[in-house]
């Protein structure tokens, strides 16, 4: 299962906190999947096949901070184990243009990840950490809560889209269970550099199951 974290609504669509949504939208568009509202899962969901593997795509329709409600409901229904889940999210500790895959570990203060971890009662799920930078390192006088709910500047947006594209390119490997290969390819690709200050506003954001194998 591939989960993108974000907030629903036009007012949030272009904000940094919706980076996870952007990845799921991009991947869904590329493979021809259509996510549809599923009330019992509190989210938009698509069921697809990648070769012999069944896959769930999920965008929780709860607020980011309650994403675990949707993730757990879906995982329980489809009998998906924690290490078969990949959660894509915005990452303050990585600069725009950088992305990393990680299994387990802490949540680095991300409230959406905290909720997923708490409701799964397990930290052993995969994360796609998509860098958005930190306001201090980007030369911005914003607190973090304000920063993540604003659109990235143009140079940052370009770099974030580049990182999303690189994560998107290794998702089939993750689905096939080739985790080490996916990580090596993603982590060896160099991030696009961004200017720390003075860039203009961002354009529109991109993006207008268990079968027994160990995969997202």
Please characterize this protein's 3D structure.
The chain is α/β, with parallel strands linked by helices and about 220 residues long. The protein has a single domain, classed as Peptidyl-tRNA hydrolase (Rossmann fold). The chain has 7 helices and 7 strands; from the N terminus they run E-H-E-E-E-H-E-E-H-E-H-H-H-H. A 7-stranded mixed sheet has the order 2-3-4-1-5-7-6, sandwiched between helices. Strand 2 and strand 3 form a beta hairpin. Helix 2 packs parallel to helix 3. The radius of gyration is 16 Å and the shape is globular. The C terminus is likely disordered.
Q: In order across it, which strands form the biggest sheet?
A: 2-3-4-1-5-7-6
Report on the biggest sheet: 7 strands, mixed
Briefly, what CATH class? Alpha Beta
Do you know the CATH architecture?
3-Layer(aba) Sandwich
Please indicate the percent range of residues in DSSP E strands (runs of 2 or more): 15-25%
Uncertain stretches of 5 or more adjacent residues = 194-214
Alpha-carbon distance between the two ends: 5 Å
Shape: globular
Question: Average pLDDT across residues?
Answer: 90
Name the CATH homologous superfamily: Peptidyl-tRNA hydrolase
Whole-number total of structural domains:
1
Measured as a percent range, the helix fraction is 25-40%
The helix-and-strand class reads alpha/beta
Please give the count of helices: 7
What is the CATH third-level topology name? Rossmann fold
N to C succession of SSEs: EHEEEHEEHEHHHH
Beta-strand segment tally: 7
**How large, in whole angstroms, is the Cα Rg?**
16 Å
């Amino acid at each position: 299962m591939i989960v993108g974290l974000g907030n629903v609504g036009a007012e949030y669509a272009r904000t940094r906190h919706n980076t996870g949504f952007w990845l799921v939208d991009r991947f869904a568009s590329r493979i021809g999947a259509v996510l549809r509202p599923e009330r019992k899962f509190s989210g938009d969901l698509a069921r697809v096949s990648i070769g012999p593997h069944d896959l769930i795509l999920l965008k929780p329709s709860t607020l980011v901070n309650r994403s675990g409600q949707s993730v757990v409901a879906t995982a329980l229904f489809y009998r998906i184990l924690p290490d078969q889940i990949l959660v894509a999210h915005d990452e303050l500790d990585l600069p725009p243009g950088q992305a990393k895959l990680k299994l387990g570990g802490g949540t680095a203060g991300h409230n959406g990840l905290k909720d997923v971890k708490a409701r799964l009662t397990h930290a052993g799920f995969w994360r796609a950490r998509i860098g958005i930078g930190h306001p201090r390192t980007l030369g911005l006088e914003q607190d973090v809560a304000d920063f993540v709910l604003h659109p990235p500047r143009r140079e940052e947006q370009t770099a974030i889209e580049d990182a999303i594209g690189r994560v998107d390119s290794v998702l089939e490997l993750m689905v096939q269970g080739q985790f080490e290969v996916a990580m090596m390819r993603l982590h060896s690709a160099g991030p696009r550099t961004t200017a720390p200050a003075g860039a203009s506003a961002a354009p529109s954001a991109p993006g207008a199951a268990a079968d027994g194998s160990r995969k997202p």
